[in-house]
Design goal:
The complex is a heterodimer of chains A (200) and B (489). Chain A contains eight helices and ten strands. Chain A is of the alpha/beta class and 200 residues long. In chain A, the strands form two sheets. An eight-stranded mixed sheet of chain A has the order 3-4-2-5-6-7-8-10. In chain A, strands 1-9 form a two-stranded antiparallel sheet. Chain A is globular. Chain A starts with a helix and ends in a 9-residue tail after the last strand. Chain B has 489 residues and is an alpha+beta fold. Chain B folds into three domains: 163 residues, PAS domain (Beta-Lactamase, 2-Layer Sandwich); 117 residues; 145 residues, Heat Shock Protein 90. In chain B, 56% of the residues lie in helices and 17% in strands. Classes of the chains: A alpha/beta (200), B alpha+beta (489). Chains A and B meet through helix 1, helix 2, helix 4, strand 3 and strand 8 of A and helix 2, helix 3 and strand 2 of B.
């Protein structure tokens, strides 16, 4: 995982190296200011994915019918691959003003109430999970290679050793979710058969 | 011309300076105001840009997509004064940058303090503006822009250009106004100055300034000047009249005086001449009486007749002297160059010959020749030298000097001796006829010599004066400017 991010930040690192002296005071401040995790060695792939998962919620608008509930529930379908990283990332954070709650989901029935559902591709029932979540207007995120083809909305991919994501806009639309242009802008790929007229 | 027009030049200069200074101050004020407003506007514009970029970069920051952030930043290309910009992550690492030209990278980034949302810093040549990018109330990164302030310089140049143009125009206007002013007030002051100069040069007090129809100070000045000229003219003519009258009266008096003098001289001559006959008769008949009837008169009678004869002789001498004096006054002058020093030497020789026993040292300097009547001048010089000879006779060794010197730009001749001298208080009487300062027993003389000398010199347009003290010798000074003052008779 370190290697992935190394390349991603290499240009930044070079630039910084050049200006170490000038940035010195800035560094001191930055170090004092940052949470402990930032100073730790490179974040793992799943730490990055956990952060992305949390951030997706900020760029999605759910249909009116879903917007009930005082908390923003993020669910993990199947085994939790995040190793606690998701709890760590979302601890004390809010999405659209709602405090975040992380829930483990093992059965399809339990998907109801989730806003974002991470579907572990290794779980045998993940495909049915996609279908159920779509009906319930839940944003589905996964890392299975054929996740989008199976009707998933956002799929993590590795591009040049960097964690990125692809979007199946049709699937999101069918579920009644609106993904913001900001999100699509940073997506590695957006799959959409229909013209994006209804998109905003 | 410059000098002559100095008032208008000064007024013009004053106009130029005042308008120039006012303009400069106004320009400085405008520019200062423009600087402030320009900076404010720049900050506002950049702030708006930075806000847009910040909100458009949230997803890029959250999903670690620097390319997207750089895309967003590249929108700044339409802002010409933005030299560089960038996005930092929340932990102040550079995330994405934008530079207008290579090398525009910002090296020394300021830092927002805790809780500060946006701040800007004016540096020498640029403005740095930084803003925190937030998502869900948390700072997820920072965006900054660095804008060149060179536009301010462009504005400054533009201002300078406008100021120069306006200055030029206003100077032209000031010049024009001054010219107009000159035709009005300054022109008339200059006219007055010219008139004053002309009056004092030509002494023509009948000149007048054209009457002023206004009541300004200049009008009053012109009026007063004219009144002053009027006054001067009146006084001048009065003075001229008085002068002319005086001149006339002097001429009249001179004429009267001359005719009286001539009559007196004629009378004196005729009296002297006519007296000679009876005196000669008296002298002759008394001689005959003594020769033919001397014995019958007795010794007492003879003595009386001797007295009569001596008196008659003395009278005859006096008459001769008077006649000589009269001749000196009336004879016609023949002007020629006369060498007074040669004349003095010949007189000195003559004096020595007559009294070879006396020890007298003559020192006679060579003098400039003068224009004069040689016969009259000889009489004058002979009188002076003979006087010196005579009044040094009581001294064992005598020095007599003749020479000339320059005094007040004229040649003064002098005859100096070391003889008996005279009382300086009585110097004025020396040249009066028959006035004698010494006893006849001490020095023989008829008392007419110096009077004769003075007349001769006076006929030559000269004067004579004397210096001396008793037993200290005497010096007689005289000048000759022949011909000029000999009045026609």
């Amino acid at each position: 995982m370190k290697a992935h991010l190394n390349t991603a930040f290499s240009s930044v690192k070079r630039w910084r190296h050049l200006n170490t002296a000038l940035f010195y005071p800035l560094f001191i401040l930055a170090i004092c200011d940052l949470p402990a995790s930032a100073q730790s060695p490179r974040p793992t792939e799943f730490q990055v994915k956990a952060a992305y998962l949390y951030n997706f919620g900020k760029f999605v608008r759910w249909p009116e019918s879903v917007s009930a509930g005082p908390v923003f529930t993020m669910c993990v379908f199947g085994d939790d691959p995040f190793d606690g990283a998701l709890q760590q990332v979302t601890d004390g954070q809010k999405v659209n003003g709602l405090s975040v709650e992380v829930r483990q989901v093992t059965a399809v029935d339990a998907i109801k109430g989730c806003r974002v559902l991470f579907i572990n591709g290794e779980d045998p029932g993940w495909r049915s999970g996609i279908a159920t979540a779509k009906k319930l207007a839940v944003l589905t995120v996964g890392d299975a290679p054929d996740f989008l083809e199976r009707g998933g909305m956002i799929q993590f991919v590795l591009v040049a050793n960097r964690v990125r994501f692809e979007v199946n806009l049709d699937a999101a639309r069918e579920a009644g979710l609106q993904l913001s242009a900001e999100l699509l802008k940073v997506a590695a790929k957006v799959v959409a058969q229909n013209p994006p007229g209804g998109q905003r | 011309m410059i000098n002559r027009r100095s008032i208008s030049a000064r007024v013009t200069m004053m106009n130029l300076i005042v308008s120039g200074a006012a303009l400069m101050l106004a320009c400085a004020g405008f520019f200062a105001y423009d600087q402030v407003t320009f900076r404010e506007a720049l900050v506002r514009t950049l702030s708006a840009q930075v806000q847009i970029i910040g909100s458009n970069s949230v997803s890029a920051l959250l999903f670690n997509d620097p390319e997207s952030a750089e895309n967003t930043l590249s929108a700044l290309r339409s802002f010409r004064n933005v030299a560089s910009a960038g996005i930092l992550t929340a932990d102040q690492h550079v995330f994405a940058t934008y530079t207008r030209n290579p090398g525009d990278e910002i090296l020394n980034l300021p830092v927002l303090t805790q809780g500060q949302n946006e701040a800007y810093w004016f540096r020498n040549t640029h403005l740095v503006l930084m803003r925190a990018i937030t998502s869900e109330g948390r700072v997820v990164g920072y965006v900054y822009v660095r804008a060149e302030l060179s536009e301010i310089n462009v504005r400054l140049r533009r201002y300078a250009l406008i100021a120069a143009a306006v200055l030029l125009l206003s100077l032209l206007l000031a010049l024009f106004v001054s010219r107009a002013f000159e035709r009005g007030i300054t022109g008339r002051i200059i006219g007055l100055a010219d008139m004053a100069r002309r009056v004092s040069r030509e002494r023509n007090y009948s000149l007048r300034m054209p009457a002023a129809a206004d009541s300004t100070e200049v009008g009053v000045l012109v009026e007063s000047f004219n009144a002053m000229l009027q006054e001067v003219q009146q006084r001048d003519s009065a003075l001229q009249k008085a002068h002319d009258e005086l001149e006339l009266r002097v001429q009249e008096r001179t004429r009267e005086l001359l005719s009286a003098n001539r009559e007196l001289e004629a009378f004196s001559y005729s009296v002297s001449h006519d007296l000679r006959g009876p005196i000669d008769a008296l002298n002759g008949f008394s001689y005959v009486l003594l020769q033919q009837y001397g014995g019958s008169l007795g010794p007492g009678g003879e003595e009386i007749v001797g007295h009569i004869r001596a008196s008659a002789r003395r009278m005859r001498e006096l008459i001769d002297v008077l006649l000589n004096l009269s001749r000196v006054t009336t004879s016609t002058m023949h002007l020629e160059a006369v060498d007074l020093s040669a004349m003095a030497r010949s007189i000195a020789d003559e004096l020595r010959r007559n009294e070879p026993l006396r020890q007298v040292q003559f020192s006679i300097a060579q003098t400039q020749p003068v224009q004069g009547d040689v016969r009259l001048l000889r009489i004058a010089l002979e009188n002076l030298l003979r006087n010196a000879w005579k009044y040094t006779s009581k001294h064992a060794s005598a020095d007599i000097e003749f020479g000339e010197k320059q005094e007040h730009g004229r040649t003064v001749f002098y005859v100096k001796d070391n003889g008996a001298g005279f009382n300086p208080k009585l110097a004025g009487q020396l040249f009066q006829p028959f006035q004698r300062l010494h006893n006849a027993e001490d020095f023989q003389g008829d008392g007419i010599g110096l009077a004769t000398v003075r007349r001769i010199l006076s006929r030559h347009g000269g004067e004579i004066w004397a210096e001396g003290a008793p037993e200290q010798g005497a010096t007689f000074y005289f000048t000759i400017s022949a011909g000029s003052s000999d009045r026609p008779r």
